[in-house]
Design a protein that fits this description.
By secondary structure, this protein is of the alpha/beta class. The chain has 23 helices and 13 strands. The chain folds into 3 domains: 367 residues, no CATH class; 87 residues, no CATH class; 145 residues, no CATH class. Helix content is 50%, strand content 10%.
Length: 634
């Protein structure tokens, strides 16, 4: 984010304490947040809530910070232990009632805006500091994130990051180490929330300080504790995850990719924050003009410091996006990635403009606000049906209607929705052991007759609800059943070490053969009926692999072993294609295969396939629980 240059603060009334007025501003921000995002209070469980609920029943609150195995499990290969900790705090206070979770969530959003306001007050007058804080609450990222409990750590991270800088400025101005240590503590908390706050250390070292603050070594020494935290964090992160990689490889694999990345970044920021139309493009151009005007408004000797500060802000904004700006089909699904860039864009409008241009600033700000409001409305319209879809599926899984069968609508992948809602169902068994809980019935085989067909429920985008399968036209009914019961697979190129995501081993890959650029697999999974979901992983991110074929084969031996005729088609044959023969050979030795369980008691679990009798890919196994045994569920 961009920190404005030093400007004289507005004088306060001698008979009115400054803190009282600032407290009133924070109250106004709270009212604004609940007015704009209050609909979240009617929300149920959504998105990844089921996974987090399941994990909080398995792991003690401190193990997510102190046990590297647990940290890897709950955060994949991103260092964000605070995320599950928020759920653990909420559950300790509120049980499984989602309403107070959302109240806490909106208060975290208010806290982020309030901390930004308090930070900017070190440079600006009250109303100047209020504008960016208010803009932060009405932008598309806030609209998107207010409805998702799973992003609470982003909001808390902003709170801690801003408070850290606020305390650091105090340390420099007062020349007191206690403030520097407090700043380092807040910075540490922000890094535990989300990795996007790690680059904020650049602001400690390079941001322009308020007028009268010490410069040079006198200011940098008070950044020492926070810098020590950053270095320790880097070492810890590498140790926990055996490297610096993330979910995706970075966008700059060569210098030739710089221009392409810069163009894609500009498009993502403009489209995601301000919209794709003429109004959005104009508002984006005005943001650049605002930064230029802010530099020109400074006295000539201060301009280099201002440019250095803008450079530090650019690092804060751009560096995390090196690992996020990919070829996503729908960027509005990932608007949370633009939370910090949005904060930076908001702060730009607190910069002073040169006197000849000052009268145009209000008009430019109105254009910016209009574009932001338009994009926020578009974001709300985009997210509302998705939120409703998740709520309907979670409600079915956690309070299964008697006699009904669910054909889940798989949103992200062929296994995502089923896994999340069954995690939530399993969480109830662990977290509320004294209460009776039913297991939802999921569609596993084609309906045998009209009566069974009438029991099936599917998602409808028309009513944003689950409807009887028989309410669809006959052709659509057959398509809905067929699409749910077909084999589906994907190649998930996470590399190694794999994030822990499997509960155990089952089935088998009996044979692996390499034919040129192709790898052929055959084996079986404990699958009911005709459909199978399979994920191939363990391949390095740079491997160019795809799953070309996944077909079912008959396994009478499995039927005999399990004494279940509905497992006759539990066998499979798969074919993967690689870029070249060397990649195929390497992939055949590195691949792992996971699938979601279907047998009773395994519906919420991912399972690993042993490879030719060998239990490989052990790093993908979820560690044993530190509070409750994983077998205490259904």
């Amino acid at each position: 984010m961009t920190i404005p240059p030093a400007q004289p603060t507005q004088p306060t009334q001698p008979n009115k304490p400054a803190w009282a007025a600032d407290l009133a501003v924070l109250g106004a921000l709270c009212l604004l947040a609940f007015a704009v995002h209050g609909s979240a209070l009617q929300g149920f469980w959504r998105w990844d809530d089921g996974q987090h609920l399941f994990f909080l029943g398995l792991y003690s609150p401190w193990s997510v910070f102190l046990d590297p195995q647990v940290t890897r499990t709950v955060s994949g290969n991103q260092f964000a232990p605070w995320n599950l900790f928020v759920y653990q705090v909420n559950h300790a206070l509120f049980g499984l009632n989602p309403l107070p979770y959302y109240v806490h969530h909106l208060l975290s959003l208010v806290g982020a805006a309030g901390a930004l306001y308090l930070l900017l007050r070190r440079w600006l007058g009250r109303w100047q500091a209020l504008v960016p804080a208010a803009l932060l609450l009405i932008g598309a990222p806030a609209v998107h994130m207010a409805q998702q409990l799973m992003v609470g750590h982003y909001l808390d991270g902003m709170l801690f990051a801003c408070l850290g800088l606020w305390a650091y400025v105090h340390a420099v101005q007062k020349a007191q180490w206690r403030w520097a240590l407090l700043a380092a503590g807040f910075y540490l908390l922000s890094t535990l929330c989300k990795e996007v706050y790690v680059p904020w250390i650049a602001l400690y070292l390079l941001l322009p300080l308020p007028a009268g603050s010490p410069r040079g070594w006198a200011r940098w020494r008070f950044a020492g504790p926070a810098l020590a935290v950053a270095l320790a964090y880097a070492a810890l992160r590498i140790a926990v995850f055996s490297g610096v990689g993330g979910y995706h490889r970075h966008a700059l694999d060569s210098w030739r990719a710089v221009l392409a990345f810069a163009g894609e970044l500009a498009r993502v920021l403009t489209d995601g924050l301000l919209g794709t139309g003429v109004l959005g493009v104009a508002a984006g151009a005005l943001c650049l003009a605002c930064a230029v005007a802010g530099v020109l408004a400074q006295p000539a000797p201060a301009r280099p410091r201002m440019l250095v500060g803008l450079g530090a802000a650019t690092v804060v904004v751009v560096f995390p996006l090196l690992f996020a700006v990919q070829d996503y089909a729908d960027w509005m699904v990932y608007t949370r990635f633009l939370w910090v860039p949005w904060a930076a864009a908001c702060v730009l409008w607190s910069l002073k403009w040169p006197a000849p241009l000052a009268r145009w600033k209000t008009a430019a700000l109105l254009v910016f606000v209009a574009a932001a409001a338009q994009q926020s409305l578009a974001q709300r319209a985009h997210d509302r049906p998705i939120d409703a879809m998740f709520e309907a599926h979670y409600a079915f899984a956690m309070q299964p209607p008697a006699g009904q069968i669910l054909a889940p609508f798989e949103f992200f992948s062929p296994i995502s929705m089923t896994s999340m809602i069954m995690n939530a169902n399993a969480a109830q068994w662990i977290l509320e052991p004294g209460k009776p809980h039913a297991r939802p019935a999921l569609l596993r085989a084609a309906p045998a007759d009209a009566a069974e067909r009438a029991r099936i429920r599917v998602w409808s985008e028309k009513c944003l609800c689950l409807v009887p399968l028989t309410s669809l036209p006959p052709g659509q009914q057959d398509d809905a059943v067929r699409s749910h019961l077909v084999n589906a697979g994907a190649v998930l190129q996470l590399g190694k070490p794999l994030p822990p995501m499997a509960h155990g081993y089952a089935g088998s890959i009996d044979e692996i053969t390499v034919v040129g650029r192709q790898v052929h697999l055959s084996g079986w999974t404990p699958t009911i009926g005709t459909g199978r979901k399979l994920v191939i992983t363990g391949l390095p991110p740079e491997a160019q692999a795809r799953l070309d074929e996944l077909v079912s084969t008959e396994r009478p031996d499995v039927v005999q072993a399990y004494r279940r005729p509905d497992m006759l088609l539990s066998g499979f044959r798969a074919r993967l294609s690689f870029a070249d023969e060397a990649s195929a050979q390497a992939g055949s030795k590195a691949l792992c295969a996971l699938f979601p369980g279907q047998l009773t008691g395994q519906e919420h679990q991912f399972l690993l396939l042993p490879v030719q009798g060998r239990q490989l890919c052990n790093e993908a196994l979820i560690p044993e629980a530190t509070r409750l045994a994983s077998g205490d569920g259904p």
